[in-house]
Every structure is written in C-alpha cells, then in structure tokens.
Amino acid sequence: MSAPLVNLRGLTVSYAGSLLPALAGIDLDIGRGETLAVIGESGSGKSTLALALAGLLPDDATVAGRIDWPGFEHQPRPGRDIGFVFQDPGASLNPVRRVGAQVAEVARAHLGLSRHAARGHALDLFRRVRLPEPEAAFRAFPHQLSGGQRQRVAIAAAIAAGPKLLIADEPTSALDTIVQARIVALLSELVAEAGMTLVFITHDIALASGFAGRVGVLDRGRLVEAGPIAAVLAAPRDAYTRMLLSCHIGLDTPPLVGARAAS
Ligand code: ADP
Ligand code: MG
C-alpha cells in the first residue's frame, strides 16, 4: 500500500438506542491515491463507516477508537478536504436552484473565489464530469436532468474544492446498469487524474472489482476481510465474503446451463 492517508484503529460507532454497535473495532489503513471498495449487505455499517470518515455522523452516534490522518497536516474538513457523493443525488441538490449556481457556491465557500471565478470553475467541473452541453446543464434545475446527469453534478460539487479523499456511498445504486458503468468509469478517471483517494461503497462486488485496488468486507459492523481485490475475489478467506461472492455469481452466471442443454 502507498503512504497512508488515514488509519482507523478500533473504530467503534454506536447509535443511541441500538443494542449492537453499527461498527465494531474497525482496524483499517487507507493509502494515498488508492481506490478502496467497501462491500457488505444492507445494514452492515457501510454508510456509518463513510460518514465517520467524512466527519458527518449524526449527533446520536457515539464514537470510540481512533481515526488518524497522517495524510493531512490538520483535521480534514468535510466538503473541502473530503468530498462526499451520496446514493441519491437529489439529497445533495436543492430542487429549486439551478445546478450551476449550486456547484459555483461550493467553490466560493471553500476556495474563496469571486462570483465570476467560481462560475468559471463550476463550468470547468461540468466539463470534467462530462456533462453533455455543460453550458445548458449549468442553467438547468435538478429535475430537468437525468438521474445520471444529476449524479455527475453531485460529483462535480463533491470535487469542487479539490479534496484529497472522495467518498462515494453507493453512488450508482439508484441508476440503471449502463449509467452505473459510466459513472464508475468517470469516478476512476477523475481520481486517476487528480491523484485522489477513493472510498467506493457498494453492495455490488462485481461493480467494484473492475476498478478498486483493495476491498474491505463488512459484516454486521465488523471488518471480516480486507486485501487486494483480485486476491479476495480469487480466494476469499472469510465465509461471509464467500457467501457474498456466490450471490453475485448466482446473479451473473446463466443458470442451469446443463438443464438448458438437456431441454
Ligand atoms: P449500510 O450502509 O451498510 O446499509 P448503515 O451504516 O446505514 O449500513 O447502518 C448500520 C446499522 O446502524 C444498521 O443496523 C442501521 O439500522 C443502524 N443505523 C444507521 N443509521 C442510524 C441512525 N442514524 N440511528 C440509529 N441507527 C442507525
Ligand atoms: Mg448505506
């Protein structure tokens, strides 16, 4: 692994009123410039890990253990040093404001740009995230864009301040398969271009396998496996990882080949 950006030691997160912690004793190092996939079923703690890293946990969450940031001189600030892409781009976009102004505002807030410079920066970002007709998209309201285009706008806002770390929490789950693949391609291009670290959260290991270097597997708040994604896919050590993989093989492999041949 490259020089570490962030080290998690015994990270434990509990929500008020829950009997079991949402994350229990996570030890994990994330290297500069690497793409780490985090996979696990719904409820396994993926979003809690993403929010803990970004410093965005809700008030009812109690944190124990450590998050150390050797890759930063100061405590990283969400929005400035850490970009966040949510599953539903609607959640991060104001429905009654033009999307260009929203992205320009992020640039103004974090980079202290003038109104004019922020507008230019946002337009440039719209080109980088490959929005078709960036000028027209700039003036659009969220509902005038497709789901994939809205997610591109949300990605533009997330990288507007030039963060070192980008966290994407199931950014493609609400999109159809072809758009999913395009957004994943865009994310891997952007992180390669900027040397950003990407934490890509998904329940879809097949989607992650194409571009992540390492993978961490969460099961009920515990990190049950972590390693190079090719090695984990080829020889998962943990029973839960094997179960996750077999679900996907079940989905992706044409079923009953023998039976079909026989019919
Ligand atoms: P995932 O993203 O993998 O679906 P989450 O991190 O959202 O998992 O949730 C992990 C566990 O924490 C679940 O049991 C969930 O119900 C619980 N949880 C998540 N957010 C909250 C919250 N704000 N308050 C109470 N419990 C929560
Ligand atoms: Mg989640």
CATH topology of the domain at 1-76 and 203-263: Rossmann fold
β-sheet strand percentage = 15-25%
Distance between the termini: 50 Å
Radius of gyration: 19 Å
Structural class label: alpha/beta
Q: Major sheet: order of its strands?
A: 5-6-7-3-8-9
Keywords:
single chain; 263 residues; alpha/beta; Rossmann fold; six-stranded mixed β-sheet; three-stranded antiparallel β-sheet; 11 helices; 41% helix; 24% strand; globular; disordered C terminus; binds adenosine-5'-diphosphate; binds magnesium ion
Describe this structure in words.
With 263 residues, this protein is α/β, with parallel strands linked by helices. The chain has a domain at 1-76 and 203-263: P-loop containing nucleotide triphosphate hydrolases (Rossmann fold, 3-Layer(aba) Sandwich). The protein has eleven helices and nine strands. The chain has a six-stranded mixed beta sheet with strand order 5-6-7-3-8-9, with helices on both faces. β6 (165-169), α7 and β7 (197-202) form a beta-alpha-beta unit. α4 packs across α6 (147-159) and α6 packs parallel to α7. The chain is globular and about 50 Å long. The N and C termini lie far apart (50 Å). Mean pLDDT is 91; it is low at 250-263. Residues 15, 18, 22, 40, 42-48, 58, 60 line the site of adenosine-5'-diphosphate.
